[in-house]
Specification:
With 248 residues, this protein is α+β, with helices and mostly antiparallel strands. The chain contains four helices and ten strands; from the N terminus they run ββββαβαββαβββα. α1 crosses α2 and α2 packs parallel to α4. It binds uridine-5'-diphosphate.
Length: 248
């Protein structure tokens, strides 16, 4: 968030640089189970973001000293490919990626019945292939679907989006340009049918009223994302049932 405004983010009609209205999500597509070697997987496209998530587990935890006797440990690795951003990123892990790995894990863990799998590990690998703002929230949305695809019992799916402020106007689902030049960014994740928020961050300034209004907008958008997550999972279950029937 630079604070400068060299770019006009809203036109006279209140339309954003990518043609969206303030409360409009970017086009969202989720595909489930496309990686053969993972226990669960999901691919998400949200506008120009392209992210793939692989899940392994619950499996025996290694190294042994990480084992927790009465629950599973959840590990998460968020990584951006060098070619995922305009200016080539170094292939190693930056501080940002280490921090986002933790933030994403903390948003997902409350949804997992970790007590049912003592002494095991659940590993979530996130590879950002193309990034355009909102990769942490898109990663959370995709990772919870990948966890479900791995057959891991969940209290609910976790769906996420961000509220932002551009030219004093609240908007949903910031793109890269809006994230860079806007006045605020508030990523939110929740378990929609339980009404529980598992992530809430804020960068920039929001008044109390803006916060409340933003939260309402986020919850609406999260409900839409949740429907798309469930549709993607249903589609995958139908494919699996068809494969099983055909192999009999
Ligand atoms: N970004 C970039 N290079 C980097 C890191 C981030 O160009 O090394 C871009 C990328 O488009 C990303 C955006 O900046 O989506 C916003 O990054 P932020 O840290 O706010 O996380 P995000 O919004 O992706 O969750």
């Amino acid at each position: 968030m630079s604070g400068e405004k060299p770019v006009k983010l809203l036109d006279e009609k209140g339309i954003r640089t990518d043609g969206r209205k303030p409360n409009e999500l970017r086009p969202l597509k989720i595909q489930v189970g496309l990686l053969k070697n993972a226990d669960g997987s999901a691919y998400i496209e949200l506008g120009r973001n392209k992210i793939i998530v692989a899940v392994y587990g619950p499996r025996e935890a290694h190294p042994r000293h990480v084992v927790i006797p009465d629950r599973a440990i959840v590990r998460c690795r968020y990584h951006m490919a060098p070619f995922s951003v305009d200016e080539r990123k170094s292939p190693g892990f930056s501080r940002r990626e280490i921090e986002l790995s933790k933030v994403i894990r903390e948003a997902l863990e409350p949804a997992i019945f970790i007590e049912e799998f003592p002494r095991t590990a659940i590993d979530i690998f996130i590879e950002v292939l193309e990034a355009d703002g909102g990769t942490r929230t898109a990663s959370i949305t995709a990772a919870s679907v990948a966890l479900a695809d791995a057959g891991i019992p969940l209290k609910d799916l976790v769906a996420a989006t961000a509220i932002g402020k551009i030219n004093g106007q609240l908007v949903i689902d910031l793109n890269g340009l809006e994230d860079q030049y806007g006045e605020g960014d508030m990523p939110i994740a929740m378990m929609p049918s339980l009404g529980q928020i598992t992530l809430l961050q804020a960068d920039g300034r929001f008044s109390g009223e803006e916060f409340e209004e933003g939260l309402k907008m986020a919850i609406n958008a999260i409900k839409k994302i949740y429907r798309i997550q469930k549709e993607a999972l249903k589609k995958r279950y139908l494919e699996i049932s068809k494969e099983v029937l055909e192999s009999e």
